[in-house]
Amino acid sequence: MKRLSKLVLLSALGALTLIGCNPAGKKSDKGGALSSSAAEKVYVAPGEHDEFYAFVSGGFSGQLAVYGLPSGRLFKVIPVFSQDAEKAWGYNEETKPMLNTSYGFVPWDDSHHPDISQTAGELDGRYVFINANNTPRIAKIDLTTFETTEIIEVPNSAGNHSSSFVTENTEYVVAGTRFSVPVPQRDMPISEYKGNFKGALSFISVNPEDGGMDVKFQLLMPGFNYDLSHPGRGKSHGWFFFTTYNTEEASTLLEVNASQNDKDFIAAVNWKKIEEYVNNGGGKMMPANYAHNVYDEHTHTATSTMKKEVLVVDPSEVPGAVYLLPTPKSPHGCDVDPSGEYIVGNGKLSANLTVHSFTKMLDAIENKKFDGDAYGIPILNFDSVLAGTVEQPGLGPLHTEFDGKGNAYTTFFISSEVVKWKLGTWDVVDRKSTYYSVGHLMIPGGNSQKPFGKYVLAMNKITKDRYLPTGPEVTQSAQLYDITGEKMELLLDFPTVGEPHYAAGIPADIIKPNSKKIFKLEENKHKYAALSEADTKVVRNGKEVHVYMTMIRSHFSPDNIEGIKVGDKVYFHITNLEQDYDVPHGVSMIGANTSELLIMPGQTESFVWEPKQPGVWPFYCTDFCSALHQEMQGYVRVSPANSNIELSWSLGE
Amino acid sequence: MLFVFSLVACGGGEKKEKESFAIKKAKTETTKVEKKENSSVPASKKVDLESKGVGPITSITLNAKIDKAMAAKGEETFKKMCTACHRIGKKFIGPAPDGIMERRTPEWVMNMILNPTEMVQKDALAKELLMEFNGSPMSNQNLSEEEARAVVEYFRTL
């Protein structure tokens, strides 16, 4: 105790000295008091846990990575629209169907916007949703297992960019098309785009019980580019807002031709009204072809079903459901503040930020303050819906998030900075540089009624000289700022896997207690599971051989197999019999052409092996599981195709 | 002469391999014997009807009569969760469970099932067993106390 108080005294003295050294309180980026306090703020001691989870999309890696904040430590890379040799995801027989699409097997994509499920406008930590841009898909990641458990393809869509954002009670996860296309797809001249192409905004319902996704309806909008979107919340719950660009409907040289109009639009969609319309039989069922892939936690197996129709809605047939809010210069981000009153349109070619008022929008609708229409959709008068303008805050505004204390934070791509400004007064409060060319930013819960305004994470597009160089391709990076004070403070740079396109953050305490430790053997319903030693066997069916194998520290059962022949297709189905936390086993087979497996306790996974020459071929555990890990191995004898060797298997004989 | 020589050489080669293997084996056995002399009885043969081990189970009363229904349940659990490493009447990855109830208290057995990680760290007998069985750890198969109790009942029938 005495010692402790001495320490306290000493550090107090130390602090005094430091303050003494820096009397003007001048903040320097290098050395001194500030950097030591920045280090303390991001330091999470060995064995301690971070305060927040950050789910950071991998952009063109098609993945979603899980980091801790404030430390920036990487915990897991979740394969979503990608194959992952580490976990065999997309390689093993169980998960291959997850990557099925109407175009066949597409094991890569461009994953952009993760969003965490909400209940009553607050993060509930059940799921993360994320979009695939290229082959339009929406995936759901279950936050008890941190695995992708459902992927639904989005028909009539192309460049699935204004996705995947959830409504206040996760009634819907919404997916909007960036590219308008012919609907249905058909052979036609590109030059006839204008007036003929459509932009589909898809409302995918999420079953409140099991999270199951289904395309409830698609709104077929005019042929603009639908760039980003966000739900209304609180008072504006029931509405959804989408930024548009290329309202010129150009099909070529968009960098010039889509920048002609002084204003594009934010489309405001009253989805409750459309939901009511379709629930009463409205809309038209049209033929379609899209994959719905579901991973079952109990069979440990995914199935892919092709769906053959989709309900489409023509907005002109639901009067009062859709309005267009003029917004200057190709708005990109479309962000709604925690109260649901302000809709921020970040006109990426505009010098100013435009903020619309939901209250004024309702008033303008009621009093028909229209400035014409686009394909029958009323265009509201700009001045009648405008709440305010943030004057010249920076160059190239992209995205805005909120701290729940009346402040908004907007990224500026061209001027590489985050700018903090006040809702209502529209005054700029602070600005901090990013390194470099920031895209999205994220405040945990920053897209909900209840943000946790402690940190903002800026995700950069360029890192150049910030890290040790690694050839022409350098690391991607995110930066963490403390936003608890009046001024923001840069705390940390950390490298990310793939482009950190966007992220969703949540207090760890919401998720941590629900994280599964093992899969229960008694709940394992895998078709080929061997749930105990007694179930192990090898079954031949023509040239197809199924091995029902188990693994436990530190052996496989069976570990000697004979009677396999060249030309056989051998399916290894391996069940990890462990029922203890963090005892996965791996398996790899010499000459197997896909990948190794990494199998969690209680789980069954399968790989295929097609032996090409006679011999005795070893397999072994690839995950260091115990002191006897190096002993965890086995042999398969492969005989010539015409051999009479009987199928046999054993362990310890 | 040459021919004979080469034959002998070939045969000798094969024989040598076998021999060297046999020698190695013999060596291991010798050390084992020596150890035995030093440390008397292996842990799997030791009898300790006092120690309750380390874990959640502090006191179990066994009825004089075996509860057959419970033993049947225990057998089912044993077959599902334990046979990967334990076989009746045979030393396998771990020791055979036959006669365990004559060597250990029911509390010790249940704690070994329910709390193996701590047992091999803190319980002297469990530590010795881990060494005797080549460092192969007893897996925690997450049985409930009720299931572990039933397994004990089943062990009483062996």
TrEMBL record, chain A:
Quote the Gene3D superfamilies the UniProt record gives.
Cupredoxins - blue copper proteins (2.60.40.420), YVTN repeat-like/Quinoprotein amine dehydrogenase (2.130.10.10)
- This protein's GO CC annotations: cell envelope
What protein name does the entry list?
Nitrous oxide reductase
In this record, what's one Pfam family? nos_propeller
One of the entry's Gene Ontology molecular-function terms is: copper ion binding
Q: Which UniProt keywords apply?
A: Copper, Metal-binding, Signal
Q: Which organism is it from?
A: Sediminicola luteus
N-terminal signal peptide: 1-20
Q: Has keyword rRNA-binding?
A: no
Q: Where in the cell is it found?
A: Cell envelope
Does the record bear Metal-binding in its keywords? Answer: yes
Q: Out of the domains of life, which is the source?
A: Bacteria
